[in-house]
Design a protein that fits this description.
Number of domains: 1
CATH class: Alpha Beta
Largest sheet: 4 strands, antiparallel
Distance between the termini: 33 Å
Order of helices and strands: EHEEHHHEH
Structural class: alpha+beta
Low-confidence stretches: 137-142
Strand order of the largest sheet: 1-3-2-4
Number of strands: 4
Helix content: 40-55%
Length: 142
């Protein structure tokens, strides 16, 4: 679904972005749940670091979704990356292999995550976000 804006989305001029692509296979429930967990962690880390998170369908035939993150400060970006590093399912390898820079066109087409994700993925990811942001700062997510 393509949304038409009367003007460009206000985030189009933000300067510091990262992007990742996650696949949500319909024929592999375990892989689908794992990808939903990854998205939940990323959205939670975005929430914890005052980072904007947006999404768009990358390739509907492959159930591929792009997740874009815009950072309000260099400190927030560093904290976001540190949280990824601290996650044993993601770590430094995720930063090196999965995070890329989105194109201006992708940024312009991106929408709030809840408007893009399939409902089952959004529900599972939201549970992880809630857990991460519940105030239990003594635990390290993994």
């Amino acid at each position: 679904m393509h949304q038409t804006f009367l003007s460009e989305p206000h985030w189009i001029d933000e300067k510091d972005w990262l992007c990742t692509v996650e696949l949500f296979p319909t024929d592999d429930p375990e892989a689908r749940l794992f990808a939903a967990d990854v998205v939940g962690y990323l959205m939670g880390y975005a929430q914890l670091t005052d980072t904007r998170s947006l999404a768009l369908v990358g390739d509907s035939a492959d159930n591929a979704y792009e997740f874009l993150f815009s950072f309000s400060s260099p400190e927030g970006k560093n904290q976001f990356l540190e949280l990824i590093r601290s996650n044993e399912d993601l770590g430094e390898a995720y930063i090196e292999n999965d995070l890329i820079f989105p194109t201006p066109e992708e940024i312009g087409r991106a929408l709030p995550v809840a408007k893009v994700l399939p409902e089952d993925i959004l529900c599972r990811a939201t549970l992880i976000v809630a857990s991460l942001c519940s105030g239990d700062s003594g635990s390290t997510p993994n």
